[in-house]
Design a protein that fits this description.
Strand content: 5-15%
Helix content: 25-40%
Distance between the termini: 46 Å
Shape: elongated
Largest sheet: 2 strands, antiparallel
Mean pLDDT: 91
């Protein structure tokens, strides 16, 4: 990759490397800014999570919750949208959720 970037740059062609995901995770800036954190997950063990690059002094990032498992919050979301228990039960029986 480096050889190709050198050739293109020397020819005046705008270019840049396209990194693989593992390469991105090892980029010096990503490491320096601690943009990858490992979080305990109840089913998957320890999982890597990409952290937001935006940092605010009065709004610290939290790392106390793992990503939800599939459909973990479905009922809660549907209730917030105004559905009652019978409507949710109907969706489950019809295998919609």
């Amino acid at each position: 990759m480096a050889a190709w970037v050198d050739k293109f740059e020397s020819a005046g062609v705008p270019c840049g490397a396209i990194n693989s995901i593992p390469d991105v995770m090892q980029e010096p800036q990503v490491v320096h800014r601690e943009m990858v954190r490992r979080i305990e997950h109840p089913l998957a063990g320890t999982v890597p999570q990409v952290v937001s690059p935006m940092r605010f002094s009065n709004a610290p990032l939290r790392f106390d919750r793992a990503p939800p498992v599939l459909s973990e919050h479905t009922e809660e979301v549907l209730r917030e949208l105004g559905m009652d228990g019978s409507e949710i039960k109907d969706l489950r029986e019809r295998h919609v959720i």
